[in-house]
Amino acid sequence: MDRTLSLYFKLLGVQIRSQMEYRISFLMDLLSTFMLNFSYFLALALILERFGTLAGWTLGDLAFIAGLAEMGFGIMDLVFSGFDPDSFSQFVRLGKFDQMLLRPVNISVQVFGSRFLVRRLGRFLEGCVIFGLGVGLANIHWTLGKMLYLPVVLLSITAGMGALFVMGGTLIFWTVQPVEVVNIVTYGGNELMSYPITIYPRWIQGFFTYVIPLVFLNYLPALYFLEKPGLLNFPPILSFAAPFAAGLMLFLAFQFWRFGLRHYQSTGT
Q: Which helix (H) or strand (E) element contains residue 124?
């Protein structure tokens, strides 16, 4: 285990050093990522200034839930970027994944360490700013339980969304090219988590509750933090189901990943 972790951090070190070689370019990428994502929230804020609330959620409430989603997704986008279907498909098509399989190192660790885009910190920092605005505007009554549960929810979002990246990357073994529906579920799922689920049609609510349980990662915990009434008469205890939902998603994702590895056939390149 120690050797595996040491190797993983060495791979990350190589990635970070290579990206910091051109620091002005790195800073510009970081700033552009921050500004692009922050502009979406700014547009929402301007709309709410006109209409007041969205399904009973104030700007502070929406900033809280959106910031939490962005922070979790930002961390995921760093840690799980090796499984990003868009980049992983290139590894498979160009034969780089075959080279990984020949090395006497755990293949999952190699994929984790194969891509670590530091510029994506911009998304995490943007989430921090929005979350800070939410905390300031939402007038949350903080308790010890809420403070302890907050990092658990953040890591649950990271793990749950990372599971979707792993599943999407695994599909590349059969499709070779990225499947657009995966981006709809991952990046679209993050956008969905940035708003209260009740604004969506019932079939979307059901899909992201019972099929891909994103509701348990962000929306239900937000009800606990913001002390809002529940969804579909769910018991309040489900606000604490985030780590269990994320753990189940991650477990199933890596089971699918192992299944894909057993049935992988090289592209011949």
A: helix 121-138
CA distance 141 to 58: 16
Beta bridge partners of 57: 54
State both tokens at 5: 């972790």
Average pLDDT per 10 consecutive residues for the chain, totaling 269 residues: 69 69 70 72 74 82 92 91 88 86 85 79 86 89 94 96 94 85 86 89 91 94 88 81 96 95 77
Helix (H, G, I), strand (E, B) or coil at 34: helix
SS3 202: helix
The number of angstroms, rounded, from the C-alpha of 122 to the middle of its chain's C-alpha atoms is: 14
Range of the domain at 14: 2-262
Alpha helical stretches, state H, 52-106? 59-79, 85-93, 96-102
The gap between the terminal CA atoms of the chain, to the nearest Å, is 32
Single-letter code of the amino acid located at 207: F
Q: Which residue has the tokens 């020949």?
A: 102
pTM for the structure as a whole: 0.88
Domain annotation covers residue 29: yes
User: Would residue 269 count as lying in a domain?
Assistant: no
**C-alpha–C-alpha distance, residues 217 and 65, integer Å:** 11
Total of domains in the chain: 1
Strand (E) or helix (H) holding 249: helix 242-262
268 lies in a domain? no
Is residue 61 situated within a structural domain? yes
E-assigned strand segments in the chain: none
